[in-house]
Amino acid sequence: MKQDFIIYKGLYGDNSYTPMLDFIHAEPLEERSKMYNWEIQEHLHTDLVQLFVIESGEGILFSEKKERTIFGPCVILIPPNFLHGFSFQSGTKGDVITFSVSFLNALEKGNSNIVFNLSRLGYFEFENQKNEFERVLFFKNSIVEELNTEQIEKQNSILNLFSLLFISLSRFNYTQNLIFSETENKTLRYLQVFQKNVRRDFLNNKTIQEYAEELQITTVHLNRVCRSVLKKSPIQIIQEQIIVEAKKYLLNTKYSIAEISYMLNFNDPAYFTRFFKKMEKVSPSDFRKV
Predict the structure, then answer these.
(1) How much is the pTM?
(2) Dihedral angle at the C-alpha atoms of 159, 165, 169, 171, nearest 10 degrees?
(3) 210 with 219: CB under 8 angstroms?
(4) Domain 6-182 belongs to what topology?
(5) Could you tell me where the beta strands, DSSP code E, fall in the chain?
(6) How far apart (Å, rounded) are the C-alpha atoms in residues 193 and 234?
(7) pLDDT tens profile 157-209
(8) Of 93, 129, 222, 234, which is most buried, counting CB atoms within 10 Å of its CB?
């Protein structure tokens, strides 16, 4: 597939960075935009979600050869594998919060009703809605403050603040005529749905054939989709999701290696250890010690 857009594994302009587990990053909009003269070329992030909270200024959002004028105050939600670019007015004020899809998984557990469908781009315009936007700003500023300080229960605090932020956006969504655009690029659309289904079902031992049937495409087509964008096979994407879940157990629980292996549907703990070491170049026990 010939591509006329840029793929980034990390933040804009950084194609060598691989987001770590539960990655969260916040920076002022101008920090990166000024580096590129406020012009951000159309691109996508493979494993990151971005939330643009724009307080003032204006610009143009580019997505799949279409343009939309945006005005502050507004919030823009960019899902993973979604083409987007910007041309901001110089001096536009706001912040960009970027977080990994693995962090989103923690939000989705128990909060499925407030996390938006991340196969769609969301645009929330708060013109003449000062109180509602101030509520969003409060949660955004609280998240940034937590990220920049070291306090007990930091991770839980950030998780709860994100939940409250999404609740505010959900409530606002019910009362406004908001825009949620799906990608028109079929390859990216297939990839988005496949990744979503993998995050939901990776513990159910579903076959590649079953995942392909859900998309109403062949396994050959699904393989072509994954390799054309991510340079990975479908089975590699599933295996990486298993590793993400394994790391969470290893870092955040006291379960034994054997218990974790059974939770991840491995019948043999020794096989799980070999699988983990092959993927991460370190054993589960050594990873836990780091």
Answers:
(1) 0.71
(2) 90
(3) no
(4) Jelly Rolls (2.60.120)
(5) 6-8, 24-28, 39-45, 48-56, 58-63, 66-71, 74-78, 84-88, 93-100, 120-125, 179-182
(6) 12
(7) 888 898 889 888 888 876 665 555 666 678 888 888 898 899 889 889 899 99
(8) 222
